[in-house]
Amino acid sequence: MSMRNFLSRGVTLSALLLAGNADAQSADAALTAHVDSVYARYAGKVPGCAVGIYQDGRIMFAKGYGLANLEYDVPITPTTPFIVGSVSKQFTAAAIALLVEEKRIKLDDDVRKYVPELRDYGSRITIDNLVHHTSGLRDWWELVGMAGMRYDDTYSVQDVLDMTSRQRALNFKPGDRYLYSNTGYILLGVVVQRVTGKSLREFAAERFFTPLGMTSSHFQDDHRETVPGRAYAYSPVANGAPTINVWNNDLVGQGGVMTTVVDLQKWDENFYSGTVGGASFLQRQLERGKLNSDSTLSYAFGLIVGTYRGLPTVEHTGVTGGYRAAITRFPSKHTTITSLCNVSTAVPETLARRVADYVLRADLTTPVTLAGGAAPTATRAANATPVQWSNVNLERVVGSYYSAELDATYTVTRSGSALALVRPRARPETLTARDAHTFTSSAGTIVFGADAKSFMLNAGRVENVKFVRR
Predict the structure, then answer these.
(1) Residues 425-452: pLDDT tens digits?
(2) Helix, coil or strand: residue 414
């Protein structure tokens, strides 16, 4: 039986190695039953997931659930390539870590040394700021949505540089805060290319994927490239078949790695072996960011350092189009759970932790706690009480407003006592007044100036984008 067929049947490798040992086979059967129950919703003719459990330098379990391609009825297996979204950031950060270890760059280098297209904001943005999301640079994908551009359109690095160079301000002074920025990681890919003369894809292949034998892994920097057996991604539609949800851009750095759960075990093991990079490189990858206030972040080099039920974790998740991915590592137990999915409703980090609850049940001593609670929800509801405005005040803000940073026009319209926001490629959205100058909608928070000749838009990872009345 080929390794591909062997793994696709969900047989654990330990069962093969320990054949004849009844207790071991019974334990493997129990593990398989547990993982099957966790991924039960993805079994059958639906998009699904591949799961891998790595322990002590080997694949303990690997199996696919559901279909990689609904049109051709292709099953998901552990060797199915997935786009893993922001899980890719650890590879980009690792490339930067290698260049730092080789003294080809320094973490405190001004990014404009390598990317002079960036505007001079009066405060130096360092490579370290990009790595740890403390640059203040506005997030590329948030800007795409705000400008009315399509998420699934084809974008190049030059598009990102053009958009970023139009931004007249940062979200905050570099180093003052942590705010996740895909823009920063795209720029890190540019740094790698300009320092080495090789694309991020070429550099990663030469320094990571080839030495580690990751033959099914690469940065997908050309959306037209064919990849045999790849998973396509989907989003459910009410009362209908799922629709394809694949973003066909050529951007890498913030994402873009295509890989399998089998290949990822080789990458995971390098965190223990140091086959690539050695001990100092491994230490660098776990170097957490620091703010100007000297407080330490949980974010390291494309990795989040934390704990789960009493055990230390090193993990990251990924989202792009309908793809969802998570790698959750428990370094003190030399154990990792990887979950790669091709449906937008999947929550792979939760699935991975449910698997870990069984695999590490003897070591996870802290009870499971549910995130959130009634208090935050009640507080948000109390703060969200709408303000009743007079007709005069409503009429004052009606009009069209233009942002040179987004090259986009937003229009505020009025119907009776209701205001709506019309923005490019989006349905009209209700504007709800919060105070004399502030409105909220699904687009974000809009704060009008006293004369209503301009407003500032704040939306997630983008703050204070200025619109001027036309």
Answers:
(1) 888 999 998 887 899 998 899 999 988 8
(2) strand
CA-to-CA dists, residue 296 to 109, 149, 165, angstroms = 20, 36, 30
pTM given for the model: 0.87
What residues does 402 pair with on adjacent strands? 409, 468
Token couple for 371: 């995130």
- Is 464 in contact with 451 (CB distance < 8 Å)? no
Residue 343 to residue 68: CA distance in whole angstroms: 10
Structure confidence at residue 12 (pLDDT): 47
Alpha helices in 245-332 (DSSP H): 261-273, 278-285
DSSP 139-164: PHHHHHHHTT--TTS---HHHHHHHH
pLDDT digits (tens, 9 = 90+) for 269-300: 999 999 999 999 999 999 999 999 999 999 99
**CA-closest candidate to residue 65, choices 53, 77, 52, 73:** 77
Q: What is the pairing mode between strands 74-75 and 462-469?
A: unpaired
Report residue 280: phi and psi, to 5°: -70, -35
Q: What are the φ and ψ backbone dihedral angles of 149, each rounded to 5 degrees?
A: -85, 165
Residue 224 in tokens: 């037209």
Q: How many CB atoms lie within 10 A of CB 89?
A: 28
Query: Is residue 58 within 8 Å of 269, Cβ to Cβ?
Result: no
Unique residue bearing structure tokens 């319209």: 413
DSSP string, 277-294: THHHHHHHHT---B-TT-
